[in-house]
Amino acid sequence: MSLKSLFSKINRSSESTEDTSNEDFMKEEIIKIDEDDVEVVLHNEETIAKKMRNSNVLKKYFQLGKVLFGMLKDIKTGVYTNVPWLTIATIVMILLYVLNPMDLVPDFIPGLGYLDDATILALGIGWIESDVHRYLDWKILEGETT
């Protein structure tokens, strides 16, 4: 099953009826994610973390960002394998969006620049929340067995 058909299947079964331009943007961008994008995100971890840590709007997502990076690293090294590509692509798209200063609302605009980043973070996390919870449960179990 292709990523596009998987995404549309998930989207049809979604309980949310909200139809926003940010959500449409995410749908369009998520299907473009590939392995090179994963590398770009992992290579820019410190830059993304610094941006999240230093922005009042994004600061509340900082710890979640650390979890997402940990999940990507565990997936890349093969330590954690119980995750669909859609989840990986969503994580990468979220973090690439945060990294990009010239997104829908450029980050340099005072008071508004990070609001779109926070919106993309919130929407994306909503889509993959159960996979993130599964990963955290796995991390807890791994900690108990090691």
Radius of gyration: 15 Å
The 3D shape can be described as globular
The helix count comes to 7
Q: Main sheet?
A: none
Content-based structural category: mainly alpha
What is the averaged pLDDT score?
84
List the helices and strands in order: HHHHHHH
Question: Percent of residues in beta strands?
Answer: under 5%
* E-strand count: 0
Helical amount: 55-70%
Distance between the termini: 36 Å
Keywords, separated by commas or semicolons:
transmembrane, mainly alpha, 7 helices, 146 residues, membrane, globular, transmembrane helix
Can you tell me about this structure?
It is a single chain. With 146 residues, the chain is mainly α. The protein has one domain. It has seven helices and no strands. Helix 6 crosses helix 7 (115-145). The chain is globular, with a radius of gyration of 15 Å. One of its GO terms (cellular component) is endomembrane system. It is found in: Endomembrane system. Its main location: membrane. Residues 1-22 are annotated as: Disordered. Residues 88-123 form the DUF1232 domain.
